[in-house]
Design brief:
With 218 residues, the protein is α+β, with helices and mostly antiparallel strands. The protein folds into two domains: 166 residues, NADH Oxidase, CATH 3.40.109.10; 28 residues, no CATH class. Helices cover 43% and strands 13% of the residues. The protein contains nine helices and four strands. α2 packs antiparallel against α7. The radius of gyration is 20 Å and the shape is globular. The two termini are 38 Å apart. Bound molecules: flavin mononucleotide (FMN). Flavin mononucleotide binds next to β3.
């Protein structure tokens, strides 16, 4: 364990902002990108189900097509790496067994010992039938948060992007009839020196307006 200092965490989170203009000449180096990408793989999810897939777009020709399907925003084209975070459209017994098999493989847990957990997971997905995409999308947003925070810690700039046409991204990525659906994007790279948003004061409600320390219950 090698904890980051409290000051560094706050400084880096203050340093980060949603980039409007990327420096098109700067590319995230391989070692740094590996850490950014690992933050996606290491994201926590409900029951550990990881109901997601992440698409990384770096090809210039493909990136050039993105503003047209991103409300005209240029960040997906100008950034170094554009990540599209997709969620599984549904969860079924087959997927649960795929997940349980990975526990057995990685932890050596015998299949029989996972029978109770399997039952719980199957009951959980039966109960949320019809709402899986919604549930999975919420998990994807956790990955988005972890991605942005990790990038900030590494000094990599980012712009989270809901302003994308997810159906058009599905078509571009060949996801339309697949198990996954694009939910949100995140452009990553380095801010342009002339990005005016970088120096704007942060707009946040006062700490005490949104944080309450709850007194001991009576
Ligand atoms: C889920 C999500 C989606 C967003 N979508 C966009 C977007 O499409 N384009 C954009 O320029 N900013 C987008 N933003 C950035 C927000 O506007 C920005 O985070 C917010 O105003 C706070 O400013 P800051 O991130 O610079 O501190 C998005 C942010 C989040 C968290």
């Amino acid at each position: 364990m090698n904890p980051t200092s409290p000051e560094t965490v706050t400084d880096q989170l203050r340093w980060r902002y949603a980039v409007k203009r990327f420096d098109t000449t700067r590319v995230i180096d391989t070692r740094t990108w590996r850490a950014v990408e690992s933050s996606l793989v290491l994201s926590p999810s409900s029951y550990g189900l990881q109901p997601w897939h992440f698409y990384v777009i770096t090809d210039a020709g493909t990136k050039a097509q993105l503003p047209a399907i991103s409300w005209g925003q240029s960040q997906p084209k100008d950034c170094s790496h554009m990540v599209v975070l997709a969620a599984r459209r549904s969860l079924d017994e087959h997927y649960i067994d795929h997940y349980l098999a990975s526990i057995t493989k990685l932890r050596g847990t015998p299949t029989e010992s996972l029978a109770g957990f399997r039952k719980l997971l199957l009951a959980s997905i039966a109960q949320s039938e019809g709402k899986h995409l919604d549930w999975n999308a919420r998990q994807v947003y956790i990955a988005l948060g972890q991605l942005m925070t990790s990038a900030a810690m590494l000094g990599v700039d980012a712009c989270p992007m809901e302003g994308i046409d997810t159906e058009a991204y599905d078509r571009l990525l060949g996801l339309t009839d697949s198990d996954y659906s694009a939910i949100v994007g995140c452009a990553l790279g380095y801010r342009h020196v002339d990005d005016k948003s970088a120096t704007l004061p942060k707009v946040r409600f006062d700490h005490q307006e949104i944080v309450t320390h709850v007194a001991a219950a009576k």
